[in-house]
Design a protein that fits this description.
Layout lengths: L5 E9 L6 H4 L34 E4 L11 H9 L3 E4 L4 H10 L2 E4 L2 H10 L1 E5 L4 E4 L2 E4 L4 H9 L3 H6 L2 H14 L7
Parallel strand pairs: 1-2, 2-3, 3-4
Antiparallel strand pairs: 1-5, 5-6, 6-7
């Protein structure tokens, strides 16, 4: 996973609330387990609507309760594969939020007014280290769990976190080998 520090650039605005993961990535595209190649299916049904346009910018601004519904991991995979690097919304479904952070897609919670202002500005910067979103000469602070922030800044997925403890794991395994097999009394 790539480390995240700052994400800057144009903003794509998806002015819809309660966007379900089934709408983000429809069920017929869930037959694969690799994380790539899902961007072309993003919002598949909505993309058929006349006038639908979803530019692949680094920042997606969405409505409240983004990623609600089922807990499919394919939704964040598709958003990231499409080109989004951060999603800014007033609220997220908990599992969707967690799935994003595990693949290096930064979810940022801002108030509805700040989301509208960022979308209107059309360009912005999300600074994870400073925990700020900057746009139109404004700086808006956001909260993020300390451990999630650290993992994203360092580019650590679950395996990467485990590998940071490689020396301790090796020492533990050596100690087990020295002490012999574990037996239990009945």
């Amino acid at each position: 996973m790539e480390p995240i520090s700052k994400i800057a650039g144009p903003v794509t605005h998806l002015d819809r609330a309660d966007v379900d993961t089934d709408q983000i990535m429809p069920k017929q595209f869930l037959k694969r387990v690799e994380r790539t190649g899902f961007g072309e299916f993003l919002f598949y049904d909505w993309a058929k609507e006349p006038g639908w346009d979803l530019p692949a910018n680094p920042i997606l601004v969405a409505g409240r309760n983004f990623g609600c519904g089922s807990s499919r991991e394919h939704a964040p995979w598709g958003l990231q594969d499409y080109g989004f690097r951060t999603i800014v919304a007033p609220s997220f479904a908990d599992i969707f939020y967690s799935n994003c952070t595990k693949i290096g897609l930064l979810p940022v919670v801002l108030g509805e007014e700040d989301c509208r202002a960022l979308a209107h500005a059309g360009v912005g910067e999300v600074d994870l280290e400073a925990q700020e979103v900057r746009f139109a000469e404004r700086e808006v602070a956001f909260e993020i769990d300390h451990e999630i922030r650290r993992r994203l800044l360092e580019g650590l997925d679950d395996i990467g976190v485990t590998l940071t403890h490689e020396d301790e794991i090796s020492a533990y395994e050596r100690d087990l080998e020295r002490s012999g097999p574990v037996t239990t009394a009945l």
